[in-house]
Amino acid sequence: MNGTMRITADRHPWSLLIELRAGVESRAGGFAVAQPVLMVELPDGEVADPFMKLMPADAQQLLDELWRIGIRPSQEQGSVGQSAAMQKHLDDMRTIAFHTLKVKP
Q1: How far is CA 37 from CA 20, 21, 44, in A?
Q2: Which position has the higher pLDDT, 22 or 73?
Q3: Fewer C-beta neighbours within 10 Å, C or N terminus of the chain?
């Protein structure tokens, strides 16, 4: 394989499932696609190898695809845009408070 991995995410139309597909351009000019993951039970204490390794750009593409279909981080952190808007609002409120209280910032 020599090309960049492409990952897509779609919501299954009749269930809550999210479908992931991945593929990469092969050296022969074709397109190799990932197949379903096989789950294997391991003995206690045995460490599993990763089922997939991604370059940072490929991981970013996966995150972008999940965002596109509506999946958001579960952490309560806002986006960069939300944080910037909140900071502007706080700056405006400080200006109003300083002006009302006749205090120099």
Answers
A1: 11, 11, 21
A2: 22
A3: C
